[in-house]
Every structure is written in C-alpha cells, then in structure tokens.
Structure prediction request, 70 residues.
Amino acid sequence: TAYNLNDGINGQTKTVILYDISNGATASISTSHSLGFSYINLSVVGSSVVLKFVFGKWVIVSSNSASITQ
Prediction:
C-alpha cells in the first residue's frame, strides 16, 4: 500500500510501524518534501521509521528493517 506523508509543522515527529502483513501487504511511504530519501518501504512485521519535520522537510531520525531509497 502506498502512503503519501503530507507536510508537518516544524519539530513534528512521526513514528510509523508495520504491524500486519496480511495478504502480503507492505507499506511504501513517500513525500514531496524530504531530505535524503525518496521512498521508505516497510515489508517486515515490526519494521519502523521515525521522521522529524524540520525546515520544511521530513528527515529520517531512525529506522529498523526499513528499505530506504534515495
């Protein structure tokens, strides 16, 4: 499933965790305002990413078992 992350407010933090992969579902996250990545793919239960919105862009703070495309 594809998800588009809208802009946040300066300093906002988002944590995304994949908790169910029924029917082979995965999560592909993109945003039009990112720094250092184009897409984040979560395909394993428990995979996660923490993002922070700073200076008008989403930045990856940490990730676990996530595939990050630049």
Summary: Strands lie at 2-4, 13-17, 27-30, 34-35, 39-42, 48-54, 57-64, 66-69. The CA atoms of residues 56 and 69 lie 20 Å apart. The longest strand covers residues 57-64.
